[in-house]
Amino acid sequence: MMMPLLRYGFRPFFLGAGLAAALLIPWWAGSYAFGVPLGTNWPPSLWHGHEMLFGFIGAAVAGFLLTAVPSWTGARGFAGWPLALAAGLWLVGRIAVASSGFWPLVAVAAVDLAFLPALAALVLPPLVRARNRNTPLLAVLAALWASNASFYWALAHQDAGAALHALIVGIDIVLLLVTVIGGRIVPAFTASALKQRGIPGTVSASSPMTALVVGTMIAVIVCDVFAPDGAVSGAIAALAAVLQAARLAQWQSLKTVRQPIVWVLHLAYAWLPVGFALKAIALLGGAAPAAFWLHALTIGAAATMILGVMTRASLGHTGRPLIIDPAITLAYVLLTAAATVRVFGLAILPLSYPEVILLAALLWTAAFVLFVLIYAPMLLAPRADGKPG
Questions:
Q1: CA 10 to chain centre
Q2: Verdict on whether the full-model pTM lies above 0.90
Q3: DSSP string, 162-184
Q4: Residue 203 pLDDT > 90
């Protein structure tokens, strides 16, 4: 009999994302503040950024796609040995990077770069057969793979600046995915929740606004590829901030405050205009409090959206009611506090920079430890309703 962990795509990857988040950040913070050794000869900040992007976020993206594609196409869910192979490739990649100081860079790169093509090979056939409108999302996987390949090319040439550039472009690509998927699920889940509670209000998801926001996010990527850190990049970031804020304003955010499973998605999306506004300020004016804009977009927008989606999807796909455990509501608050401290802590708290990093890492780690404690038993057990999956 197939073990429950391999019965649906979200199970191994959401568990892997949670464990990666709970383990890698304290390791990084311990290395930064206390000299805890890393098993790599990469610059530590690049190791940290790479594993957050291609380890933690990569697992979450895989779990989402392997769960969403069957729903989008009507195909059978991914399970068994193909799922085990994909999860194994992700895990071996993490082990290779974590111990990369002991292996040739080309070997680490080969192992790590194998994962996203394997993921694409799984989801491509059902998308193409169904002629599904989400097929272009495969371009996101290809672009992420290209940013990872560029990262390794830069490492091979000992160009830390180019490696960081590759990571920032990869983050931009993830933010485009947050914009596209968030733009679908946030208004849809909000409208459903308000209707169930009998609360009046129109949740708009207009096509012209969607096209404008997505186009601007693509412009952010293009600009960061070819002309990062300049006035043009700052201007596009400012435009992205305004448009993302205008889009969010259509979604009745204040009416969701009593439903953590919904408001966490709004909160995650709200970090997009905040992060891009800070980026614009940093690039156009150089104001010191805006210097940590990148973490507003990574911890605030990407990680919070990931936590919100993982907690909701895991409940629904394991046959449980969409009711969030109070400990997970606390996790949402802790992760928001981690983003706030990391972005604004140096300006508003009487702490040194290492202390800000340690406090943010502690809050982040507590959030994802709670996720693992509450959700690992669900992900490792059969569905509560006895159905397959």
A1: 14
A2: yes
A3: HHHHHHHHHHHHHHHHHHHHHHH
A4: no
